[in-house]
Amino acid sequence: MKDTLDARDLSEPSVQERALRASDERFRLLVDGVRDYAILILDAGGRVETWNSGAGRLKGYRADEIIGRHFSVFYPPEDVAAGKPERELAIATTEGRLEDEGWRVRRDGTRFWADVMITALRDPGGTLLGYGKITRDLSERRAAELALGASEERFRRSFDELSIGMMILGLDGRYERVNDAFCALVGYSREQLVGLSHGSITHVDDVESEARLQSTLLAGDASSFTTEKRYLHAGGHSVLASISVTLIREPDGRPLRFVAQAQDITERRRNERMLAHLADHDALTGLLNRRGFARELTSHLARIARYGATGALLMLDLDHFKDFNDTRGHSAGDALIVSLAQALQARLRESDVIARLGGDEFAVLLPNGDESAARHVADAVLSAVRHLTIPALTHEPTWVTASVGIAPFEAGRHHVAEEIMVKADFAMYAAKKAGGNRWSDSPAGGLGGPTPVRRAETAPATRTKRSRKKLASSAAGPQRTP
What domains can you pick out in the chain, each with its CATH number? Predict the structure, then answer.
């Protein structure tokens, strides 16, 4: 009996252990429930280990996005380059704690003025375990200090020398004070801006939305807001900026003035658009890639499901492209692909969607027209391929042909993107198998194999003996075969 009790005592947590665990859980819930402070723990190397709801609210990251990353991600690039994050950890390690005020960066790239406290965490033996970090957003207090001029020297240096645009505006929306960074942002001098209404250099499409946001501040529904707007630069172009506006009030609550910050995000938006473009466009030709084409095809299938079938899908593949690459070189092959892309863009309508799916395989979505129109387009495409001009090979005779598969969108049929592409692919390979330089239809109703194959016109008389010999397997003259 005693042995049984001893085993139970060893396997079950003691009352003291259970109480400690409950205390730890209450403390965790307390920390996680704090929304006005970012409270987190860093490991000894400065990487984030814990993340509370206040940190997510203040900095914009989810826990799964930030845990494991170095805390320097919260610092502006200029501070990171100057080694400020590492320097602050070194001070906290040596002195036990550090408190600092300065700019910090949210997930979306905007900045806020923060009070930061970093405390070194050590075990009873003095070994450094990591750091506790508490951050509080002081943007409103900072804006108030700037506006009220609690310290003229601090105000002047902080306001005028900041690298982001700063403005003080009256309740009538006129600039009362601006810094050099804002002048550079909009291209006007301080003398030109002071007394000017902010609406006069705001894009006409953004004036109303910004006025609504300012009304929410005056009504007391909010104390500040952050948005994006377009400034009208003195040079005549628009500048996209992220702005943060805070309403400063008198001690009795009456509105006094606005304090605003502005950051040029034109380049950031341009880079985002470029990355989005690269994600669904082919780098060599600039055409849509497979991903981008799949999106367009899916959208068209949704339209015809609602309004009725129209148009067709064409798949195009160059004949003997591998031989061309092997004999002329990959640079010439790339030049051929680019020339083909340009020829397709020149020949097809703006409403037609062209994509390079990979290698020498292209797809064309014809959103309008019937099967007869699709065949006409296929003839035109084959002709364009045969008459390609390749700048890199103008001194060499070049004879290029292609095979085209046609898959019309059928009335009364539920279309699936992958299925229609497979049908067009089958038809294209049937044309290729029949000798190339021709198109083939995909039969209605399924994947049973392409039907009539039509061969395009023969090569121009200028083709070389070598190209004649290479194409000898293709019968001369237009024909259709079952």
Answer: 35-137 (3.30.450.20), 142-269 (3.30.450.20), 280-481 (3.30.70.270)
